[in-house]
Amino acid sequence: MKILVAFKSVPDPYAGPGDSASKSVINPFDEIAIEEALRIRERSEATEIVGITIGAPAVDEQIRAALAMGVDRAIRIDDARALDPYAVARILRALVAKETPQVVLMGKQAVDDDSNQVGQMLAGLLGWPQATFISKIEFLDNKTRARCTRETDGGLEVIAINLPAVVTTDLRLNEPRYVSLPGLMKARKKPIEVLTCDQLGVTVQPLTTTLSTSRPPKRSAGTRVESIEELIVKLRQEAKVL
Amino acid sequence: MDFAWSEQQRELLSAVDRFASEQLNYDVIANDRDAVFNHEAWKKCGAFGIQGLPVAEEYGGLAQDPLTTVAALERLGYGCKDNGLLFSINAHMWTAIIPLFYNGTEAQKKKFLPGLCNGSLIGGNAMSEPNSGSDAFRLATTAAKKGAKYILNGSKIFVTNGPIADVILVFAATDKAKGASGISAFLVEKGAPGLDVSRKIQKMGVRTSPMAEVFFTDCEVPEENLLGKEGAGSWLFTRSMTWERGCILASAVGTMQRLLETCIRYANERKQGGQSIGKFQLVATKIVDMKLRVESARHMLYHCAWAAGHRKAVYLEAAMAKLHISDCWVKCCEDAIQIHGGYGYMVEYEVERELRDAIGSKLYSGTSEIQRNIIASLLGL
Question: Which residue of A has its CA nearest to B14?
Fold first, then answer.
């Protein structure tokens, strides 16, 4: 069984205010998808894990991190544009046609834009079943089906899907392993294939345009009140919440 | 000399940075108080690849040159606050792994090195005796050949990792009449008949690194566990001691860098008399001196490792690096406490522990006085 695991490079969500803004990491949800792919292979249920990402050469650092974790080989779609989820899903569809995996794994969303759309759109484009927000996956019937536990607002939902399928991972699925030094050394020998959208035959036209971005309005400082009576008056007359 | 890191070295070093600061700093205060070794952190270091840094890949190592190895250990010291764990790792690497890697037979290397590299085995080294420390080669411990075995008798003191070691490199006299040329080295495995390891010896610092006294009473060691030739012990010891002196304080350079940054932060935050204490010249001067010490220590470390990597003899460089870095480390820790004032003396600020951990560096792997003797003799005095 071949697994395609898609990951996005995002600004480090744990970087402090003093840290350099340029530091990027693998989207934490995608890191969980990579870890799950590795565990599936370690259970001898997968034979190959191919990592895919889209970006400028700078994302090779995150690709090497994925290879160091244990991904077998990687493909980078050389495109530095900020692509919308539909464009990403179409690129992934072309890669699925090229690689013919049984499972496409990815995080449920990226922590930079929180779109939570690519997995669903990809499944739609491929006409494949999807299991989103999973916290558990098991393969059934000689790996022709998978039983997935989904984390929903109402609780846990267990579904069975036919393969091939698109699966997106939630936070509690696993804890990703640490990149070890031997892993880093092995990663240097693993191939990174670089392709363009043209080579894949995908024309990317954004469906959305960002008109403007703005920061939330700054909160003004609060005021102190001298008594409960004054507080109640202010809540009634100024805040109008009583 | 070129200390500009390649892209691959940078990648490796930044991985160590992250690993050390995120994976090893838990229960350090309690473990120091109770003198507890963090076995889990040891295993993490092994799985991450620390212990195997200088060992060839065929034996489970990473085949890094000395300069990359010490730079990685420097980063480990920068991120990891458990100096006892670092001391145990250093003793394991320089006094067990290195002699084995350079002098072991193929069978010995295949048997021990993969485990010693991946964290599943712990190594130690037993040289000092109750009546033989700086006068290293006057050993009372003897080894007599009997059939296919050597029979060891005597005792060793200050055996780092002794209580937890799976294999200890023991030096013993096979021919007392020959003095230094009559010393041989043996790989003594845990559970060997006649081997006794004492309870943990309590120490002032590096308390999380267990130390023991080791006794041999007709202790049987199979002849295939002789390391190097019979009588080659002192040569083997001197060679591994050069590695040890040159590298054992690599992590201390990282520790000093961390202390420097801690002090700068504190001196900027702490206000007295309406200004940051860093604005007081007496405090600023201390921090400037710390910076000079860290930089000079780092250069001596790198220079020694660079020379070792270019197959130069580094007896002089290693002795100078050991002497200088240990002096700098202790002084840095004193200054760090002074800058933190009364808080620096309190356990929870984690500054006082650094001084207790640093002081031993002027004693182990040859005292500062012995280093000066070596340097003097190499200068023709």
Answer: A181
